[in-house]
Design a protein that fits this description.
The protein contains 13 helices and 15 strands. The chain is an alpha/beta fold and 396 residues long. The protein is globular. It binds pyridoxal-5'-phosphate.
């Protein structure tokens, strides 16, 4: 029998042969009781670590009170969450959904509607080479990675891809193409290999968008919620977007996404134009409220920035003489170590060594550790990962 005949789970993932039973803080235990340091956090989801007491308490209390009603009615936790997110971001309002792809779908619908309302013929969105925005038809069409798109043609039309970090390319497209209504961009590319754009990139994009009356839409699904040392990565620059999307660590593992909009975009969506059955339900919003209150109460944005400084300094010092290491880069606790070779095998070696890591773009070791880790945990994570890279690169 083929795998698909024996496995009742659809084979969309190339999974590692390990199953986790429980977690606490930065640690996971597998079904055999082996302990692992989680330097990946479910790909930037569990920023507060596993089984965080405040989040657990909030989820349990809400489950005992009310899980779900419907967006046909007012939802107090949703209103409160929207208030906190708009206050933290400087934007005006929020739509809640269940994932990053869904949040980006809302952003793309806002862009289409914005263009159509202005009478633009065939509204078009500029996105970046190497970007990742999700796996729905519109978001995979927006994504700048042919591997994600291959075999799913015809793609959704209305996207033009340009090189990441290249503002001249954006200007040129806008000058030539009057249909461009928005730019959708990650402040730091995650799946693309932890790519940090040049300083001032978002400010330049803001200027170009303003000049052409286009929306600046930031995908902060991976970079948001304190991970880069600010609430949102755009806050490292003097800029406010028109639209921002969030998901991943917003609920620390409870599925929730959000699309926030500023003055130019906040009133585009009107009743009946979009919706989600589960989006922003009482359980998910209560979890997200606990996440925000913990980040605030424990000053975790500052903590992420402090940990980051130390981790980058340590990595750079420890790996400086290894010629196979091309670059150590990132922002806050989005950490990438680019090697001169494919290194997917490091994931399994990490599991053997008791650390969960990821490889992005084939040759970039990606770490997305929790904001709550201790200095000692950060130090031993760096040592373990350096040992893994040294042993791997010394193999040839
Ligand atoms: C920047 C970015 N946008 C969107 C997504 C899609 O999020 P989801 O898997 O929750 O749909 C991801 C997921 O990795 C992402 O990193």
């Amino acid at each position: 029998m083929s795998v698909s005949e024996t496995n009742p789970v659809m084979t969309t993932y190339a999974r590692q042969p390990v199953m986790f039973r429980r977690g606490k803080g930065a640690w996971l235990w597998d079904t055999d009781g082996k302990r692992y340091f989680d330097a990946l956090c479910g790909i930037a989801v569990c920023g507060l670590g596993h089984a965080h007491p405040q989040v657990t308490e909030a989820i349990c209390a809400q489950a005992a009170e009310l899980l779900h009603t419907s967006n046909l009615y007012r939802i107090d936790h949703q209103e409160k969450l929207a208030e906190l997110l708009t206050r933290a971001s400087g934007l005006d309002n929020a739509f809640f959904c269940n994932s990053g792809a869904e949040a980006n779908e809302v952003a793309l619908k806002i862009a289409r509607r914005y263009g159509n309302d202005l009478g633009v013929d065939g509204p078009t969105v500029i996105t970046m080479d190497g970007s990742f925005h999700g796996r729905t038809m519109a978001t995979l069409s927006a994504t700048g990675n042919p591997k994600v798109q291959q075999g799913f043609e015809p793609l959704v039309p209305g996207f033009i891809h340009v090189p990441y970090g290249d503002t001249d390319a954006v200007s040129e497209v806008m000058a030539q193409n009057k249909n461009v209504v928005a730019v959708l961009v990650e402040p730091v590319q995650g799946e693309g290999g932890v790519v940090v754009p040049p300083d001032g990139y978002l400010e330049s994009l803001r200027t170009i968008c303003d000049r052409h009356d286009a929306l600046l839409m930031l995908d902060e699904v991976q970079s948001g919620m304190g991970r880069t040392g600010k609430w949102f990565a755009f806050q490292h620059e003097n800029v406010v977007p028109d639209v921002m999307t969030l998901a991943k660590s917003l609920g620390n593992g409870v599925p929730i996404g959000a699309c926030l909009a500023g003055p130019k975009a906040a009133n585009i969506m009107q009743p009946g134009m979009h919706g989600s059955t589960f989006g922003g339900n009482p359980l998910a919003c209560r979890a997200a409220l606990a996440v925000i209150s913990t980040i605030n109460g424990d000053s975790l944005t500052d903590r992420a920035a402090a940990l980051s400084q130390r981790i980058f300094a340590d990595f750079k010092k420890k790996l400086k003489d290894l010629s196979a290491v091309k670059e150590v880069r990132g922002k806050g606790l989005m950490i990438g170590i680019e090697l001169d070779r494919s290194c997917g095998e490091l994931v399994a070696r990490g599991l053997d060594a008791g650390v969960l890591i990821n490889v992005a773009a084939d040759n970039v070791v990606r770490l997305l550790p929790p904001l709550i880790m201790s200095d000692d945990e950060a130090g031993s994570m760096v040592s373990t990962v350096c040992d893994l890279i040294e042993a791997f690169c010394g193999d040839d």
